[in-house]
Every structure is written in structure tokens, then in C-alpha cells.
Amino acid sequence: MHQKSIEFTYTFLMNDDFLKPYDHSKEKEIYDLWEKSGFFNPDNLEKTDGNYCIIMPPPNANGSLHVGHAVMVAIEDIMIRYNRMKGKNTLWLPGADHAGFETQVVFEKKLEKEGTSRFEILKQEGGREILYKKIWDFTQSNKEHMENQVKQLGASCDWEREKFTLDPKIISVVYSTFKKLYNEGLVYRAKRIVNWCVKHQTSLSDLEVSWEQREDKLYYIKYKIPSQKREILIATTRPETIPGDVAIAVNPKDKRYKDLVGEKAIEPITQKEIPIVGDDAVDIGFGTGALKITPAHDGVDFEVGKRHSLETIATLNLDGRFNKLSGPFEGMKVNEAREKAVEILQKSGSLDKIDNYSHQVGTCYKCKSVIEPMILDQWFIDLSEKGKKEIVRPAIDSVKKGKIKIFPKFQEKIFFHWMENIRDWNISRQIVWGIPIPVWYCTACGKETVHIEKGSPKNCSACGHTELRKETDVFDTWFSSGQWPFATLQTSGENDFKNFYPTSVMETGYDILFFWVARMIMLGLYVTGKIPFETVYLHGLVRDKDKQKMSKSKGNVVDPLGVVEQFGADALRMALVVGNSPGQDVIYDENKIKGYRNFSNKLWNIARFVLASADSHGFNADLRGQLTAEDEKLLKQCEEIKTKASQEIENYRFSQAAEIAYHYVWHDFADKIIEDKKKILAENSDKSDSAITLLYLILLDSIKMLHPFMPFVTEAIYQRLPKKDKEFLMVEEW
Ligand SMILES: [Zn+2]
Ligand SMILES: [Zn+2]
């Protein structure tokens, strides 16, 4: 291991500003020194006592960091700095996510403000490429801005290894995974009911649907059964979809309807004849016990339709307007068509009554548009049959058997519940911004060819035909970020994958346990045969003083950098860590930050006093004086405190560790020990040598103990010590 020689001088650190109060505006200069030292890169670390690695959750390159990111940076940097000081070969790998759909949404809002839209750009020749390039530039400038923010928070990550989810090497890993899944029969393309947002014109995964309680109307509609000269009553919230009805379903055990199975009814808008089928899944006690079946626009009906080999009539287009097949609703949007339907049904006497109805409605988690279930060709990962055994089960077992530990533990239960009920994963998105799905379709036989090398395939893998059409969908962004731990390490330093995989800890917010953590476990195990990380640490969300979630629309978002400029990164980090236990939300309070800014000053003043005293007493760090028995005891007490703090950090109790160090430094070291020794030093008795040695050693231990939490002020103090064992506190022995 080579050690970089440090040739620059610490001018700002050495001049007489030590006489002044602590100035946190110098944090940036300290960060630059760390970065130049090369010690963020594990290849430059002196000794290696095992490996330690955290892959930083890549922030979305579509905006600025918020205070939640500051929590992530603070907690991960604590683990990284602690383990580096413990002598581990420590890597913290940063990155950024192109964040497909999310970024396109942000970008489309920007276009909207400029009076245009994605659809306008796509109309131009080469529109797809133009749009892609525009979003690319947008993310690159955001990315740069975010990197600076991460640096200002003090993150000691290795920028030489930074990754972006659209790096060509990352894409090639993602493609290999897709090909492996395809070859092993674990991905398929099928017509499926998908969750469609008509505003964004893309399908959403089940997780991206947000359920809302809504007040709607329930319409009771009479369908005539000519052969029996009777009617059957059906309750629906969506009369506008009636032209898409292909059957009525009743439970064959339902006495009321038993003899109707096999008969025909008349759908009351376009007056077509539809069969009445018997299906055990129909709940006799729910509604009228009879259901209209509209397979093209309802997930449950789609399944009923498959069981009875019913046709599908898609009456709604992808842009949210009805088409010809809807008869009188052609050209209308949903609400307009609903009014029209009610009018028609009323006129014909088919509307029996209207009730108020409160129910759960699926909406787009970004724009709140009501989700339209639509039938589309989509790519899916099988997680319910073959995939259940080969992808899902190993992930569940890795947590059950304790190979992966989740903090807080109660989140494991939530994880199991979700994994047991998982459905096939729709990985195609109808947007431009993302990794294109590497598939071509034969224009002759229709068969797909998966082609992950450069360029397009020469001919169809099935029939040899040479005209192929490229898939225009891109991957769901979680499909690429779900491969992040191995994709990053396989494409960075030569031995990185060997040295650092499985990684030590995955630290992220509990809100993306399913979106992200579960997918990383599944894909990591599937592709590499190994777990991606040993521990999952889920931090809480940051809420404002009134416990409200922070959001732009509420106007309570805190810009972490404004806070850093005002109070220093050290103070912000402490405020976000103390009182923050895994999985519990943390309250953002400016008074708390002020309190820790005062603590930075306190620590600085302690150091000034100790070093000034050492100087005036002619203390020589090379000749550490003999400690008196009493001072020996005090030093031991300090070491015990440090051991306690260590234990807390190793048990992921960062808040407790920070508080132990804080209270010791302020209330024991400053208030008691220094006050006592002041008198001895003033007397200049024979106990002075011991006293000054003790103060010096406790100061050194104190800044070590606090360094993972408050890296800047502790490093600034370290640089002023008369004799240092290392160039930086960052690489001192814990
Ligand atoms: Zn939407
Ligand atoms: Zn073909």
C-alpha cells in the first residue's frame, strides 16, 4: 500500500486564527485537503484489517438534495469514518440515479412552464433523440450540483469511483441480467392489465399506485334478459365502460341467478348481446351479486375474462379518450362519458337508482390522476411461478436465516408480508428517459430477439427475416437500481467486486424497503449467488416541528445547504443524528442545530485552552509525563467512554454514541476535569506535568470519538496538535 505524500501546507490551519472563535466557513477548505490526500480511496489507505463497504443510495439526478439526504450522508459517513479509523479497508462508493419516470415527470413540468410538452417534442423529426438529449443535459447539471452538496455535508466517499445508472458499463451489466432472465425463462412479454396514467401516458408498477379514499356514486343499472322476460340489476361506479362489457358474471350457487347462467343479456348502451356466466369468485353478498365483466378496463374482470375465454373490448385509448368501440362516447374523456352514460340510461329507463359510495381509488402517485387499467403488451419478471422459487424464495430465506439483518427488526415482518404476496414485476415503461429494453421484434413472424451487443441484430432469431422493429419501451428505473451493489462494484476497481461484495451495510429510508431494498436482495442473489449486503439500516423520515412530512407543496422543505452555511455541517449532522433511531421519524428543529453549533464552539475553546496551556507549560508531546494515580483514573474513565461509544456505533445506535461523546466532553471533560486542572496549572505545582498530559490525551480521545459525527471541527483541531501520528485525524487510529 502506498501512502500519498502530502506536499501542500496547511496555511489556513496554521496561522493564528486559532485565537479566534471557531469559523465553520472553513469547512470547504478542510474537505479539499481530505480529497487531495487520496484517503477517500481505499487503495491509498495504510493498513487493512478487513474490508468495509457502503454503496451510497444514488440520489435522483433531477433536483437538489433535501434534508432527508443529509440524514443519509450523516449516518453513512459515521459508519465509514469509524471503520476507517478502526483500520478497515474502507470504501464508500457514491453515485447518481437517472430515475426514469420521476425525472421525466420533473422535466415535463419544466417543459409545461416553457409552454411546451414532451408530446410536442416527440412530434418533431428525431424527437425521441432530442428529448433524450435535453433530459440528459438536465440530469448532468443536477448531478454536479448534488455532488457539491454531498461534499459540503462532509461525505468521505471515493469520488474516483462515482457511478451513474446510465454509464455504458452499468447498462451492459443491466443488459446481461435481462438476458440471463430471458434465457432462463424468467421474463416474458404478455398482454396484461397494467396501471395506466393517462396524463403521463405510461404504465406504473403496483407500488407506484397510491390509493385514496374517494366519494363517488354507485349506479344501479338494469340489463334486460329477453329470453326470460326479466332484468338483472348490476351496481357499478363506471357506467361509461358499459360498451366494453362482454359478459355478466354471477355465482353459480346464488339461488337468485342460478337458472340465468347460459342465458343472454342486453348491454344497455350499445344494445349488444352478452352471455351470463357462472363464476365461483363472485361474492354472493356483495352488491347485487351480479357483476358486469369489462376485461379491457378492470383487473378483476380481466382474470374472469381469461377463465371464460371472453373477448376484450378496449373502448378507452391510451390518451384517456374513448374510441369508436364505445359508441356514443367516442372522443370523450372519462367524466364527460360518465355524464353522458347516466343521461342515456335515464332516458331508456335502465337506471334504477344512484347511491353515494365511498371507496378506495387507485391514483398516479405523481399527478393523482385516476389509474385506468389497460391491456398492453408489457415485459414482466416472473415472480409468482418459476420466479417465486428461483428469485423470491432465496431473498426471503436470506433474511429468515439471518444472513441479512434488518434494523429496525420489526421491518422484517413487513418485508416478509410483501414478499409472500409479490406479483409479477412489470419492468417496461412507455417513456423516453431510461435504459432501452434491448429487444427487437420481427416484422414477419412477430417473434422477439434479445440483443445486448452494440447495434441491432441482423435477423430474427426465429425465422431469419431481416426486417426488425426496435422496442421503444425502457426499463423501470428500479430494475437498474435494483442491481446497484454488484453493478457498481463489477465496473469500478479491478478487485472491487472480490474485495467488497457482499457490501457491509445498505443504509436508506424505510419508505423504499420494497421499491429498492427488496429488489436489490432478489436481483443480487439471482445474478451473483450472494447477498448484496449484510445489514440493512433503515433511517426515519425527517419531519418538521409539527411532525408534518416535508414536501414542496407544503412549503416546509429545508435546504440543507442554507443550514450548513449558517451553522456548519457538523452542527447539522449532530442535530439529524441525535434522537434519530432506526425506522423512527426525526423532527427537524433549528434550535437543536444552534445547540450543536454552540457545541462546536465549545469544543474549539476546549482545544484552545488545552493547547495554549500545553504551550505555556513547555509540554512536549514526545515525552509524555507520568500521570498521577488520580489522573490515570481519569484517563481510564475517558477510555471507557470511548469503548462505550464504539459499542453503540457497532450496534447501529448512532444517536446514543453521539450523546455519550457529547455529554462526556461537555459535562465531564470541560465542566469538571478542565476546571479542576486549571487550579493546578495556575499553581504550577509538581502535578502540572501530569495535568497537562492528561488534558492533552483526553482532548485527543475526544476529537477521535467525535470525528465520525463532527468531522470538520475535530480535524481542524487535530491539525493544530503539536505532534501528530498521522497526517489527518480521518486516518488516525480510533
Ligand atoms: Zn400521472
Ligand atoms: Zn421472424
How helix-rich are the residues, as a percent range?
40-55%
The name of the CATH architecture of the domain at 204-372 is Alpha-Beta Complex
Major pleated sheet: 4 strands, antiparallel
Bound heterogens, unique: zinc ion
Give the name of the CATH superfamily of the domain at 204-372: Valyl/Leucyl/Isoleucyl-tRNA synthetase, editing domain
Task: Walk me through the structure.
By secondary structure, this protein is α/β, with parallel strands linked by helices. Among the domains are: 204-372, Isoleucyl-tRNA Synthetase, domain 2 (Alpha-Beta Complex), CATH 3.90.740.10; 438-472; 590-731, Isoleucyl-tRNA Synthetase, Domain 1 (Orthogonal Bundle), CATH 1.10.730.10. It contains 22 helices and 25 strands. It is elongated and about 115 Å long. Helix 10 crosses helix 15, helix 18 (590-616) packs antiparallel against helix 21 (688-706) and helix 20 packs antiparallel against helix 21. A 4-stranded antiparallel beta sheet has the order 6-5-14-16. The site of one zinc ion has 7 residues, from loops.
Give a quick precis of the structure.
By secondary structure, the chain is of the alpha/beta class. The chain contains 22 helices and 25 strands. The longest helix has 30 residues, at about 655-685.
Key descriptive features of the protein:
disordered N terminus, 4-stranded antiparallel sheet, 734 residues, 25 strands, 4-stranded mixed sheet, 18% strand, alpha/beta, binds zinc ion, Isoleucyl-tRNA Synthetase, Domain 1, single chain, Isoleucyl-tRNA Synthetase, domain 2
